[in-house]
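User: Could you check the structure of this?
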Amino acid sequence: MRTPQPSSATTAEAAFGVEAARRRLPELMERAAAGERIVLQRHRTPMAALVPLAGQAPTDPSLRQRQVQSLMALQGSGRGCWDPNQRHPARPAPPAPAFVQPVQHLGPPGEAQRQRSFNPRLLAHGSRIALDGTALVAFLADAKGAGKHLEPLLQGIAAGYWIGVVSSVSLIRVLEGPLARGDEALAQRYAKAFDNPQQWHVVPADAAIAAAAVRLRRQEPQLDDSAAIELATAIQSEAVVLVTDHPALAQTGQHPVLSALRL
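Assistant: Sure, the predicted structure tokens are below.
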């Protein structure tokens, strides 16, 4: 795939081969709607273009920046980037409960927790929602059901209604997919999507997180180092819920957890 190069025109322009454009069509449509001109090439020859219907970018540059950098614009862009046979694939082996740990006020008392349907609207404005690497990969790779179920949460984060929380371990997981394929441009877009403090808090694995992760591993031996760090990040950040698709995290009793594929 040719690395997108901005044109000298006022409207930004990027070029993509047919296969890359097919794989990243939702993202490219969002970018075109935000004012970017997307040129489609075959054998490096321009053939067509995606352009905004109005013919120009939004008048508010900050609006265009938020649209282009939103994680919502990247849904499905990572198809084929991650190895589905790795030790912790995006989708855990069944059976995994639809709602793993209780969150208060989801339904009438006594109702079986796993039979309830989680409603994101129950999360208060300003709530922090932690998403681990497996959940983010499920969304970016468009794993079965992930986009549909994660969309309300990510839309709320993109709109500033909630705040997303990710650990440095999550970012490593996200970036390793496109970088393993040599797609530097896509990796940069992923990185920029989280570089917005109004939407995302990126939490480094500092000494406090490391110590909390060690304590969690002693309490729950099924957690490996990365899972313990993800859980410690959610707890230390006071996230109301951790969205994950990690089989070991689905068994924790330390924090409310939702499955990325079956919210």
